Amino acid sequence: MEQPKGFVDSAFPTHVCKLNKALYGLKQAPRAWFHRLSSFLVTYGFTCSRADTSLFVFRKDDCLMYLLVYVDDLILTGNKPIMLTNFITRLHNEFAIKDLGSLNYFLGLEVVHTDDGLFLSQCKYAHDILSRAGLLETKLVPTPLATTDTFVSTGSPFSDPTLYRSLVGALQYLTITRPDHSYAVNQASQFLHAPTDQHFQSVKRILRYVKGTMSYGLIFKRSKRTTILGYSDADWAQCIETRRSTYGYSIFLGGNLVSWSAKKQPTVSRSSCESEYRAMANTAAEIIWVTHLLRELHALPSDRPTLLCDNRSALFMTQNPVSHKRAKHIDLDYHFVWELVMSGKLYTRFVPTKLQLADIFTKSLPRSQFQHFRTLLRVGSLPFRLRGDDRIKDNSTNQAND
Fold this sequence. Notes:
Structural class: alpha+beta
Strand order of the largest sheet: 5-6-7-8-14
Oligomer: single chain
Shape: globular
Number of domains: 3
Radius of gyration: 25 Å
Distance between the termini: 68 Å
Mean pLDDT: 86
CATH topology of the largest domain: Nucleotidyltransferase, domain 5
Largest sheet: 5 strands, antiparallel
Order of helices and strands: HEEEEHEEEHHHHEEEEHEHHEHEEEH
CATH architecture of the largest domain: 2-Layer Sandwich
Number of strands: 16
């Protein structure tokens, strides 16, 4: 700290104000810290990603390092252990940091390293949510929502809206590793301003589902084929009160789920084709962002991305410019899908409804179909257990031996 120019006390030029408040409490502290850290990283040779400003990439010859920043928590990985060690040493010299070793816990996410990949879960976080709601001993249900559940604004107001908002907000963060209940949480989030007793009962059902699948998470496996594959779907005019459609998508890289979403469309669609086409446009935009990120990571697949849709009319619109004359009421922003297809940057293809994985993000599904799609999303429990220092053993093998 120093006295501002023009207001320097000639009698005490080195005196400054005593800071009674921690730097963490100052509004400019996060910006100042990120500027300090990013300046050091850029000087070292890192470049800031344009797709994700919290990601820094270092490349020199055949050496690659990725550094992800969340305030003062850092994740560092690379393909050259010696370079990683040298960089960590430089970090130690520049900042007062603590090396926690191999990644196993980060912002509530639990990371388990397996022989062929990673397993991400939020078991402890889910337990904390259930404890807060007082549902640790609740009965279990097989799906987050019943097929007959509907969300409407009518009904008796819930007595504790703050509790409702707190639980739904916590469930939103839980969807980072649990995409299987994204649709249910999205429906509950639309009534945060005025929840009813029926809405709270639906939230309790979601929590009962979480209780039965607390150990579930996302499974990532190594794959030689790294094709980008996207599924897009929309449930036309699903909302009874506004007649707006709910759309969802899931994007895979090498068979691993890397991006997904379940949202209500901001405008009313006049046909199922229009709602599906708008959903494809949003999915295409996300796919383009994923390709930009992979390009900066120097890991972009050579094959062009594929977008799958179960609506033939919407699929036809992406491949035939003549049909656009019948869709002038659709905002022009959504017609960039056709341009991506024509330029060879995107390939669209039909997928049967029974194989449409994005269905799990647009509606409540029967138990068997829901569990099938959940498995295809690679959401499940850890398929092995650890016993002391022994090697990882598959549960099925252990059961067979028993």
